[in-house]
Design brief:
Layout: H1 8-29, H2 35-58, H3 62-82
Amino acid sequence: MTDAPLTNEERAARIALIVRDAEKAYDQMYEVHGFREAKWQFELAYDWLNEAAKLCRELGNEKGAEAHEARAEHIKKVYRHQFMDPPDLNY
């Protein structure tokens, strides 16, 4: 059984859900107890935002894709600066 291609409306709805979940994961980075859990939340947020960028490109929304990629990179910088031991200050 193969999955049917997503419609544009389904892609847009999926993007909204993915971005919502990515932002929740980012918020959770600050709520968890331990570097391992923070890393897991960072990876979820980062991967989901890049997935949202991919779906934006499928819709022909290059600006949206770039915005999601920029947000993912920002979250990576925050994670590296605040959660790595020792912090990666070269961002």
